[in-house]
Amino acid sequence: MVLEEGDALEMQRSIREVFLEESLKRYIVALVGHTREYPDLELGSSPRGSLALMRCSQAIAAVCGRDYVQPDDIKRVAVECLAHRLIVKSEQSIHGLRGTQIVEEILRSVPPPTD
User: Fold this and answer.
1) Taking the model in full, what pTM does it have?
2) Which residues pair with 43 in a beta bridge?
3) 2 falls in which pLDDT band (50, 70, 90)?
């Protein structure tokens, strides 16, 4: 498929229209917030990580043919959106701890909204 001029921008605009319920916005903030408090991290994710997680979850929903985000959309892209933004403490990194493992642990410990 070849995109015409302006198609990519229109696709980006349409992704922003995918509905993200307030409880899911809070879930994203909670996930990112946990990276800032995680004891094995030197540095957690910034607000840009929250924005990336939000936009990617909207894109996944759109690709799946929905105009709304589900918690599983957020979980599906969380590792890719957040892991590379984390700085693991050197003593933990030496022992093999990686950002991907930390994000996976945070996903297990922070329950998604049920409403």
Assistant:
1) 0.89
2) 87
3) confident
